[in-house]
Specification:
Blueprint lengths: L1 H21 L3 H21 L4 H9 L8 E7 L1 E2 L2 E7 L5 E2 L2 E3 L6 H13 L1 E13 L12 E13 L7 E7 L14 H12 L6 E2 L1
Parallel strand pairs: 1-7, 6-9
Antiparallel strand pairs: 1-5, 2-3, 3-4, 3-8, 6-7
């Protein structure tokens, strides 16, 4: 039920923002603002965020609402996957972050790997595009698509970055505590399956 209500709030936010973007009627503007207020109340009750924090976040969202895009770089050394430990929660994920305007998804993956692990890589293949809400992640205020991009090492050396405090390669049997907002064990297993089966078809929810 928690996730169902989160989805309802995100849909209400989407409808309200689209309406506020395109309508010229003062009466409709008032109605869409009321819908947005209802979305804020639901988000407050079904997440750990405070009401004012949610209002501030939604103020930054203008125009027609679209999903945010999280891009993750996937690097294997034989049967071990590259992971970085995030400073924000001291837990581990594959390197990545929000997509940047002006960069392609492959360029974002390469940049994030370099910034978070010190390795220089070249992106080679899109492995998966997942709807975050359909997987076992904690609730999130944003509606998010997650892109996993396979990359090949071409240089650099392992070193922590501005947002990470460690980096290393791990087998599936030794995966450390995960930053579940960023990646789940099910997703890690999916990535290892791609490593075992290089011809596996790209996954898209």
């Amino acid at each position: 039920m928690k996730y169902d209500w989160l989805f309802v709030a995100q849909r209400l936010q989407s409808i309200a923002q689209a309406g506020l973007t395109y309508t010229e009627s003062p009466f409709d503007i008032q109605r869409y603002e009321q819908i947005l207020s209802i979305a804020v109340e639901i988000l407050h009750n079904f997440t750990v965020c405070e009401m004012e924090e949610i209002k501030d976040l939604l103020k930054n969202e203008k125009g027609y609402l679209t999903p945010k895009v999280d891009v993750r770089g996937v690097i294997f050394r034989e049967n071990k996957i590259l992971m970085v430990r995030e400073k924000i929660d001291n837990c581990w994920s594959v390197p990545g972050g929000w997509a940047d305007v002006g960069l392609t998804p492959f360029e974002v993956a390469e940049k994030e790997v370099m910034e978070e692990s010190g390795l220089v890589v070249r992106a080679s293949r899109l492995l998966a595009v997942l709807d975050k809400q359909r997987h076992n992640h904690p609730p999130d205020l944003y509606y998010i698509y997650k892109m996993f991009v396979l990359c090949n090492e071409i240089g650099g050396e392992l070193v922590a970055g501005a947002e990470t405090n460690d980096a290393g390669f791990f087998s599936l049997e030794e995966i450390p505590q995960l930053s579940k907002d960023r990646i789940t064990l099910e997703e890690i297993k999916m990535l290892f399956d791609f490593n075992r089966n290089p011809n596996k078809q790209t996954i898209c929810d």
